Amino acid sequence: MEPGTIDNLSILYQSSDFIVVNKHWDLRIDSKMWYETLTLQSQLKHRFPELADPDTYYGFRFCHQLDFSTSGALCVALNKAAAGSAYKCFKERLVTKAYLALVRGHVSQSRMTIRYAIGKNTTEGMTHMMCIEGTEGCENPKPCQSELIVLEHGSYSGDPVTKVLLQPLTGRTHQLRVHCSAIGHPIVGDFTYSQRGDSNPYRMMLHAYYLRIPAGKELIEVCAPDPFVTAMDSNWVPQHVTQRLEDVIQELK
């Protein structure tokens, strides 16, 4: 997947009520800053000017969020009723989300459940970050749960890494990034949660791969193509397959 431009928006699913896009990495969903002209909102307005809703601030109703650095499947509602039905699915925890990531080091367990509570970091200079319960400056930590499944062991630019499937069972800010860092396997290219050490990769290796929203009469179910394959990034060299991605997704369904 090439970097985002105003006219290379990738559509995974479209109906009269919803669009699911494959969001580029290093792209904000929307912005109130005048200098940030390239956002997912501006890509949508460029591609679908007739679908923008003048009753909303951004023209489109985003059903959920993805970090600036994270790529992958993101659902957009095209009217108020559709947004309401998607919101209900998220509120009632009927939505299934699964992410792909490359993490530093070789994860030894084939599966693990990560349960660190996450709160806001109030330490000076770190207020844009989240942190796990028990760390200094961690304010108002809330229960959190993520599932991790090892797919492949390999290397990235010669360093040991593991390709994993991550499933957030709660929805805290930066949850997967914080949980991976907390178990000693930060996401490759995550500058923020690697103590500002991991700056060489061209992107953070976290991708929203699978999304399922049973929105009323409509079942939205998409996979955003896996960017962590050697054909797309020759720095990633898989060495040993633990679980096939297709099998794990089939299990989720």
Automatic annotation (TrEMBL):
Domain Pseudouridine synthase RsuA/RluA-like: 18-182
Taxonomic superkingdom: Eukaryota
Record GO biological process: enzyme-directed rRNA pseudouridine synthesis
GO molecular function: pseudouridine synthase activity; RNA binding
PANTHER family (alphabetical): MITOCHONDRIAL RNA PSEUDOURIDINE SYNTHASE, RNA PSEUDOURIDYLATE SYNTHASE DOMAIN-CONTAINING PROTEIN 1
Family according to the record: Belongs to the pseudouridine synthase RluA family.
The protein's name: RUSD1 protein
Species assigned in the record: Eulacestoma nigropectus (wattled ploughbill)
Gene: Rpusd1
